[in-house]
Amino acid sequence: MTGLTAEVVVDGCAPQTPALAPNGCLLCYVLAPISRAGDHLDTQLWLAGTDDAVVPRRATADTATESRPLWSADSETLFFLSDRADRGTPQLHRLTPANGAVTTVTNWRTGVIDHLPLSDPHLVALLAEDEPTEQDARRARDRDDAIVVGERESRARLRMLDLRTGRVTTPGVFGDRHVVELCQRPGGGPLAVLTWASADNDHGPRTGQLHLFDPTTGSAENLGPVAADARSLAWWPGEDGWHLGYVALTPPVLQAGTAVFDLAVDSRVLRNRTAGLSMCPTQLCQTGGAPLVVFADGLNTTLARLDPAGLSTLSHHPGRLDNVTTTPTGTEIAAITGTRYQPPNVHIGPLTGPLRRITNTRPDLDGIALGTQQPLAYRAADGLDLDGLLVLPVGRSASEGPFPLVTIVHGGPYDRYADRCQLFWFPSAQWLAAAGYAVFLPNPRGGQGHGHQFAASVAGRVGGQEWTDILTGIDLLIAQGIADPDRLGIAGWSHGGFMSAWAVGQTDRFRAALVGAGVVDWGMLAATGENGQFEAALGGSTGWSGIGPHPHDAVSPISFASRIRTPVLILHGAEDTNVPLGQAVYLHRALRHFDVEHEFVIYPREGHSVRERNHQLDVLRRTRAWFDRWLRP
User: Fold this and answer.
1) Is this structure's pTM higher than 0.85?
2) Keywords assigned by UniProt (predicted)?
């Protein structure tokens, strides 16, 4: 067995977005590096046979960012996006697997955002922003570039590409709306088109509308508004005509569990098909008949079929099942999944399982010792059933405790820990387990995998019961002799960073904390974050809700900064638009004011996630050094 290093963690590659050919013979996937060494993320397209007859091989040779592989209806052509000609500006390309020939299809000056090959073999639908005009070019030359909010804002528009002529046309049917997603009815026919009022993440997801677009006539029909954050469109036939479904947040709360919504196109009757379930749908997969539904189900994943009479469970899978793709017959799926001790890979198999692995993208992890990972099931103070994971120090058993314990809270909060390999560039269980720590990964209320009410229960009440849910789990591990009560640490990124900042303002039990891209003031986040209205739902109010104090003040860690005595490590990306850097600056100034031991690290050029290799290495090493300093002196 060899030891785990920071380089091993960040220097690997991960498969993404598998795409099964309609005939089920070939599969394409993207291989992406975990970290970026230069200015661009260089990804690769790979092809594999579904019957093991075609060993996975790289399909393209250029240095480029390649993405969104999608097959033509006859399975003869693979379309994908690549910026091989002009880095940072993706264009549509097509690959003929039979001879390996790659052809550039578009030369759209602003680049292509997305694409959908249609049943008509001569047509491809594109999403792309408007090309610059002569006036735009003049303004750029003259630096007459004052930004008037609401004017000349970028919009993704539907374009139609005729492969016979190379001509791209723009149907003028959706006004100034931003086009988000497309899905063609099985067997040909209209496109379902999802649009937003603008591309602004704070506004757009709350203004979604569904449309039908006829690619033959160019006409469109508005089907009306959709629930917030709608995505994952899918068609299916019913006795009453065609149905169109999507996954979206359950109204009326913006911080809520997801549901599958079913729209009967002819009658306009809309139904929530997953109401009351203790699982959360994450994806709809279109087939020629009833669609497939992927559910986050506690620590694991359930695959079901949305039959007319209800859901039919097909199979259960450990951990996560991501980027599920299927053929029109819906008899076989491919997905990204892994195990407790193996990172995610492409797997394929029947709907009823099991799935077999067809890629091994991280052979460098073979032979590296990992900590024993086990599920936890316990009850909250009010009796609510909870779950989570415990990862023990490498080579140690629970009976050898107590150990220094670091609790890492997940982000979201509408996310979850699944029973999969917990090794990432951000503070992760196996990275700390390799240094001798036990790690607790709780799934408190507010997260995914336990139904709508479980998720919605934290809206306006963050830091309340979700915090006591976490404490209950820590106390359980102390009572079991696994955690040393005098050597407790807490960490998290994004909403997990909020919980870490919240924790140290509520108690002195923790000897060290890490706040990664964390929220410290909900009012400021609602005003400046890219998802402001969703954050306002969590915090409970906004600064313009009237004269304070406001409800969000009572759940903001900054309000309790005077109580903090725990040493805090603050990590934040300089260009984070999700949780802007000002949140970290606010916490840093408060800790400095109250003379609290802390380090404040800003990563230039980074957003909400850290991408550059040297920065990821720094996060890993600095995280371990910080907890070593305070928990293992």
Assistant:
1) yes
2) Hydrolase, Protease, Serine protease
